[in-house]
C-alpha cells in the first residue's frame, strides 16, 4: 500500500495562510482509517504590510478659542517648580492687595501699609521665576521699580487696584507675551506707577 502524500501549499506574502488536507482519497476515510491531519502553513508578513496599520487622521478645524490656564494645565503635577512657585506668590500678592483696599475703606492706613510692604517682599521671589518668559520678567521688573519709586509711601486706591489687576492677569497668563506685558506696564504708568528704575529715570533726565 502506497503511503499518502502530504502537500503544503504556500500562500503569497500578505495573504492569510491556507489550509489543505492531505490528498487521501475520500473513500478511504471511514472505519479503520483515521481522518488525515490538516496542515497549516504559517506566513510571515512583509515589512510593506505595515501600511495596513496606519490610521489616517482627518483634518481638524481651529475654532480660534483661547483656552484658560486651567484648561491648558488640568494636571497640577505637570507644572514646573517655577510655575508653581509663581502661582502661589501671585495668589498671595493679589490677596494682600484686596486686604489693603479693605483696610483703606475702613480708614486703617496702618494695616493697608503693612499689606503693601508684604507685597513688596514677595517681588524678589517672583523675580526668581522670570524663566517663565520675557513677559513675566517685564511685569515683575516694572512692579519692583514702581515700589522703589514710591520710596516707602503707600500707593493710593487706584494704584493698588491696578496692581491687583496685574497680579490677577499674570496669574491667569504667566506665559504672556512681551506685547501683552507692555500693555500692563502702560496701565501702571497711567495711574502714576513708574515701571522704570529711578536710576534710569535720573540718567535720562540728565542728558
Topology:
Layout: E1 19-21, E2 38-40, H1 69-72, H2 81-105, H3 109-127, H4 134-150, H5 157-172, H6 178-190, H7 198-206
Antiparallel strand pairs: 1-2
Helix pairs in contact: 2-3, 2-5, 3-4, 4-6
Kindly describe this structure.
The protein has 207 residues and is mostly helical. It has a domain at 80-206. The chain is built from 7 helices and 2 strands; from the N terminus they run ββααααααα. It is globular and about 45 Å long. The N and C termini lie far apart (120 Å). The model is unreliable at 18-29 and 38-58 (pLDDT under 50).
List its traits.
207 residues; mainly alpha; 7 helices; 2 strands; 3% strand; globular
Approximately how much beta-strand content do the residues carry? under 5%
Oligomer: single chain
Distance between the termini: 120 Å
Morphology: globular
State the gist of this model:
It is built from 7 helices and 2 strands, in the order ββααααααα.
Amino acid at each position: 500500500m502506497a503511503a499518502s502524500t502530504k502537500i503544503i501549499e504556500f500562500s503569497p506574502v500578505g495573504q492569510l495562510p491556507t489550509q489543505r488536507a492531505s490528498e487521501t482519497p475520500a473513500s478511504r476515510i471511514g472505519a479503520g482509517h483515521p481522518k488525515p491531519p490538516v496542515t497549516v502553513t504559517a506566513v510571515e508578513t512583509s515589512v510593506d504590510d505595515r501600511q495596513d496599520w496606519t490610521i489616517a487622521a482627518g483634518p481638524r478645524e481651529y475654532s480660534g478659542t483661547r483656552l484658560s490656564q486651567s484648561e491648558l494645565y488640568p494636571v497640577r503635577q505637570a507644572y514646573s517648580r517655577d510655575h508653581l512657585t509663581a502661582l502661589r506668590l501671585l495668589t498671595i500678592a493679589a490677596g494682600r492687595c484686596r486686604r489693603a483696599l479693605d483696610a483703606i475703606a475702613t480708614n486703617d492706613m496702618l494695616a493697608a501699609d503693612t499689606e503693601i510692604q508684604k507685597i513688596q517682599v514677595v517681588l524678589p521671589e517672583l523675580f526668581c521665576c522670570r524663566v517663565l518668559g520675557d513677559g513675566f520678567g517685564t511685569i515683575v521688573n516694572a512692579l519692583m521699580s514702581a515700589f522703589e519709586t514710591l520710596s516707602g509711601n503707600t500707593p493710593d486706591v487706584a494704584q493698588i487696584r491696578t496692581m491687583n489687576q496685574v497680579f490677577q492677569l499674570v496669574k491667569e497668563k504667566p506665559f504672556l507675551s512681551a506685547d501683552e506685558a507692555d500693555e500692563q506696564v502702560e496701565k501702571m504708568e497711567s495711574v502714576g506707577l513708574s515701571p522704570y528704575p529711578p536710576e534710569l529715570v535720573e540718567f535720562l533726565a540728565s542728558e
